[in-house]
Amino acid sequence: MKQSPQKRIEELRDLIREYDYNYFVLNQPSISDYEYDRLFNELVRLEKENPQFISPDSPTQRVGSDLTKEFKPVTHKTPMLSLSNTYSENELYEFDRRVKEGLPNNEKVEYVCELKIDGLSISLKYLNGKLNVAATRGDGSVGEEVTNNVKTIRTVPLNIRKHPTAKLKLNEFEVRGEVYMESEPFKKLNEDRELNGEKVFANPRNSAAGTLKLQDPQIVAKRPLQVFLYNFLSDSAEIKSQTENLSLLNDLGFRINKNFKLCKTIDEVINYCREWEDKRDKLPYEIDGVVIKVNSLKQQKILGNIAKSPRWAVAYKFKAKQAVTKLHTITWQVGRTGTLTPVAELEPVFLAGSTISRATLHNIDEIKRKDIREGDTVIIEKGGDVIPKVVSVDLSKRSEDSRETKLPAKCPVCGSKLFKPEDEVAVYCENNLCPAQVKGRISHFAARGAMDIEGLGEALINLFVDLEFIHNYADIYSLKERREELIQIERLGEKSVDNLLLSIETSKQRPFDKVLFALGIRYVGSGAAKKLADHFESISALAKAGETEIEAIHEIGSSISQSVSRFFSDEHNKKIIERLKKAGLKFEIEKKHKRSNTLEGKSFVLTGTLSTMSRDEAKEKVIENGGTVLSAVSKNTSYVVAGEKPGSKFDKAQKLNVPILSEEEFLKMIE
Predict the structure, then answer these.
(1) Which of 43, 132, 198, 608 could form a disulfide with 12 if both were Cys (CB 3.0 to 4.6 A apart)?
(2) Is 116 an annotated catalytic residue?
């Protein structure tokens, strides 16, 4: 009896998925290339003849033909946290001590060590066993959808393998991991680009990140992207440990890195780190350290998170790789705040996956301390395997006529006088209209973590400032009035200009905290901007606030409060903000996100372990209700919330007669 087309299509899909899993995940081919191609082509033919049976999870649908014109924002249900870094074995012992102090007495702690892949984080959401949405990490809370591009990665299953445990509900779940490129395929990609006269990529990580943001999935499919998955998230699955997590991912057909190890003590962790620091060059991909996680998920919840990092995990970074090269000249860059930074212009040298031709020298004091001079032979390294810096000078190769490096007499960009505060190492250009500062402020404003204006990169910003189309970041929103002039610029054209103007218009939807960060107030990073926005809720309230009121916010110090006050006292800045308001940017938190004010004016200190929530969750509850959370107890503290095993903060509260709340009393207060 002849098999129906639908049944044969399903049979072929199951076979091809199994062969793909064996080849790409297990690296154990179970069929010849010829036989695989024969089956795949049969599936393509049957689907073409019977288009009603085509489904998104078919192996033939990995590479779509539709261009991605916009990478939509995706809100992460569970934030994608970044890890705190450690650089020495002593810091690992400190991490172990903090973990044990944060847990109830006599709790045993196990750690899982995983290789730290030098790639970019990815989130994969599955519905009814099928890949539904893939998103980048973004700022940890909101990423960008890259589903069409991720589908081209053969190690990402479009449809999961059936799990042997029937009780496990897998209707909806998320997995997280790292997208990367292996070293040899990356090298081959660059060689091909060079032969074709195209610009080569700096390193595998940047290449992988750039590839995921390409608009054409067919180009992405030609790039050698790979993935390792390490985290499974589901409300229905009862997983007790990270080792169970990895085992489940493996059973479901996800590609995990099998070099992980369960360690009973921190000494075992340190031995693992030593072992892989020695063996890192033998791997086919780049690693820059080891990730250490508390194995128990229950203990992870107790320990909670701090800012954007978990208390239950840490990254141990390997010592930076070094190289020797010649320093030709020292140039001076002017940043958006006017800071002058010396840069070493080097003889290009390959180091840790990329070619280095420039390195930071930090400041004039650092140059003098290391006695760095033009023409020197220097040793460079990548700090944390990312930012190149000059470590030292090979004095045996120094010429006799070399001279000490001195500060320039004037700003190298605008010729204005320089200013050096008594209590700072930095030197500043005092001209706020210095083109370098203007370009730096606009670049910061348009950057991905700020207003995220796609297409407005450094080259275009430089061009627009030089043409006097923009003098400050408010002018960005007037560029639409110059559309006809922009189209006439060589290498832009109508389509590029319209895409840029659309991106500028779209940026008006960015939330208040991103707009506040984009303003470029000195010392106000993305984290501080979020705290200020959440607390004051509008730009007008923040502008009116005194320094004492600003410093009352947890983790906001005097440097930030003084800088904020200076910024809002400047008439030029006030005019810029008014223009941005008229352009339609968001300068207050949307009403649906506003907090209650039941705890307004009250401050809390948390100590001990809470049974119903983590400290971070308790902190969020206080903030949501208008209160503030402090790190230390003083006579002005409103309440101390004491959980199990409270520490010295409890004792200090008793001495100062600060009211102490039990967990039950605290819960009643925030209900």
Answers:
(1) 43
(2) yes
Choose the weakest-confidence range: 161-170, 525-534, 541-550, 607-616.
161-170
- Inform me whether the pLDDT recorded for 385 exceeds 70: no
Same CATH topology for 432-509 and 512-593? yes
Q: Which of 2, 116, 130, 317 is catalytic?
A: 116
Cα 375 to chain centroid, rounded: 37
- Rounded to 5 degrees, φ, ψ at 262 are -90, 125
- The CB density around residue 230, as the number of other CB atoms within 10 Å, is 22
| Domain over 432-509 is classified CATH 3.40.50.20 | no
Smallest CA-to-CA distance from 515 within 566, 573, 462, 577 is with 577
- pLDDT > 70: what percent of the chain? 95
pTM above 0.85, yes or no: no
Q: How do the domains of the chain map onto residue ranges? A: 5-60, 85-317, 322-398+411-428, 432-509, 512-593, 603-670
Placement of tokens 């503290």 in the chain: 637
The per-residue pLDDT for range 16-54, each reduced to its tens digit, is 878 777 766 666 777 777 787 788 888 888 888 888 888
Residue 602 DSSP symbol: -
Per the structure block, which two tokens stand in for 356?
A: 């280095």
Q: Where are the alpha helices (DSSP H) in 491-590?
A: 493-506, 512-518, 526-536, 539-544, 547-551, 558-569, 571-583
- What distance lies between CA 303 and its chain's CA centroid? 22
Whether 421 has a pLDDT exceeding 60, the answer reads yes
Give dist(CA 254, CA 100) in Å, integer.
32
Task: Please report, for residues 338, 434, 574, the alpha-carbon distance to residue 430 in angstroms, rounded to integers and kept in the order given.
Answer: 7, 8, 19
CATH of domain 603-670: 3.40.50.10190
**Predicted pLDDT at 27:** 65
pLDDT value of residue 613:
78
Q: What kind of fold does domain 322-398+411-428 have according to CATH? A: OB fold (Dihydrolipoamide Acetyltransferase, E2P) (2.40.50)
| Domain topology for 85-317 | D-amino Acid Aminotransferase; Chain A, domain 1 (3.30.470)
Q: Are 99 and 303 in contact (CB under 8 A)?
A: yes
Q: How many CB atoms lie within 10 A of CB 591?
A: 7
Dihedral sign computed on CA atoms, order 410, 413, 416, 417: negative
Domain 5-60 classification at class level: mainly alpha
Average pLDDT over residues 143-158: 91
512-593 belongs to CATH 1.10.150.20: yes
Helix (H, G, I), strand (E, B) or coil at 449: coil
End-to-end CA distance of the chain: give it in Å, rounded.
Answer: 67
